[in-house]
Structure formats: structure tokens, C-alpha cells
Amino acid sequence: GLLLMSANEEANGLAEAVSGSIDAFAIRMSDRAKELGALNTHFVNPHGLHDENHYTTAYDMSLIASYLADNEYFLNIMKDYIYQINGTNKTDEIRYLSQDHKMFNPLKDASIFREDVIGGKTGYTDQARHTLVTIAKEGKTTLVAVVMKSEKGTLYSDTNTLLDYGFNSYHSLALHSPNETIKTLPLYTIKSGQPYQAGSCSIGVEKDLSVLVRNDTTLQEITTSLELPEYIDMTAKEGDVIGEI
Fold first, then answer.
1. What is residue 24's predicted lDDT score, i.e. its pLDDT?
2. What is the pTM of this model?
3. Please, is 127 exposed, middle or buried when counting C-beta atoms within 10 Å of its C-beta (0-12, 13-18, 19+)?
């Protein structure tokens, strides 16, 4: 109801269920946004209706959306452009929810629908006008487009222009894979009270590491910086984080 139909009462209900009150949840929202790097955002309600103290930026919205781009629960909800609520103890009526974001929903407008869109959210108030956050994915490249203070006639065309530019101008460049040894460090233990090299330890990344770059950027132009200790302690286990790349 919240993500497909922009149901403000759903936002209030969820806020009260999670934090006990709308005000307490808004504080939690703002704190979480800052944890994601959204430093110019301040929430006072969970639904976005106008308030002078409730504000964000296009950049901050893109940071929040980038986090959601890897959130399986969010993406599973986004897959349903039509959702059916069956009868409950309050009503026998079957109700249908329809995705408002037209790039998701081919039944809304087939000319606007994009198959590469995997997430996003519409927004509107009289003061903010039309806003749209859109997450799209092609291959290993995921892009976020944010349009604010727009009008109906240009909201989706501007988003299309941004996404097309991004996919045409940038690509995901593979840097390192988990089966690759980036560096080998000595493995130390304590023997007779003194540090003793017992062997060596291969250092790599936990999952595929890539970076989004312009199409004319080559692997030779990428500089890799490693922050690692001089040696690994014998008590270390596979999967421990021992540095940064």
C-alpha cells in the first residue's frame, strides 16, 4: 500500500508500529539517512507531506535509493505492479493495488514502461510538485535517477534522458574477484614468547569488486590502494576483515 499507492495512512501506521509514534520514527528516519551519507536531509514525518522542517536533496535521495537497490525485501515489493489484498475479518471485498510509477507498470502507459527499472517511488505535493526516484539495472550496472520539482509532462521524459545518458556513457569495470590473490602477508604466531612466522596468508576480496566508470576509462587507469597490516595473526579466521581496498 505504501510503495505502490503512496498510502500516507500506511506510512503513519508503519511508523507507529516501529517506533511507537510518528515523531519518534521521524527522528529515527533522519538518523538513518545520515548514516547513509544523506547529510542535508531532515525528516519530520514518514510520508513526505509538506513541512518547512522536512527536506532533502536530489543527491541525498540518490544515496537512500542506492541503499535500497541492494535491499531484497524492497525489490520484491517493487516486482508487483499489481497486488491483490484478499478479504479480511473487516471486509469480504478483494482490493487491488496498482503501481503508480509508470516506468514499472506496463498497464499504466506502455510507452513509458522500461524493463530495466527495478525500483523507485513517485511523490507529489503542491509545494514540491512532482518528484520521481528511479532505480534501473542493465547487466552489472545499476543507476539511480532523481527528478524534483517537475511537472507531469516532463517527469518521465527527464528520467528517461538521465538513465539513457548513464547507460550510454558509463559501464561497470571489473577490478578484483574472490578467487584472486591481491597480496600475500606473513602469518605470525607466538613461540617461546616471541613472534614466529608460521606461514603466509592470501588476501582477497569477499565478493566481486567493480567500479562505475566512463566508457573510455581503461583498467590501466585505475589505481588500487591497499590498507593492510604488516602481518596476520595466527588467530585470524577466513572471512575476517583485515584491511581496506
1. 98
2. 0.82
3. exposed
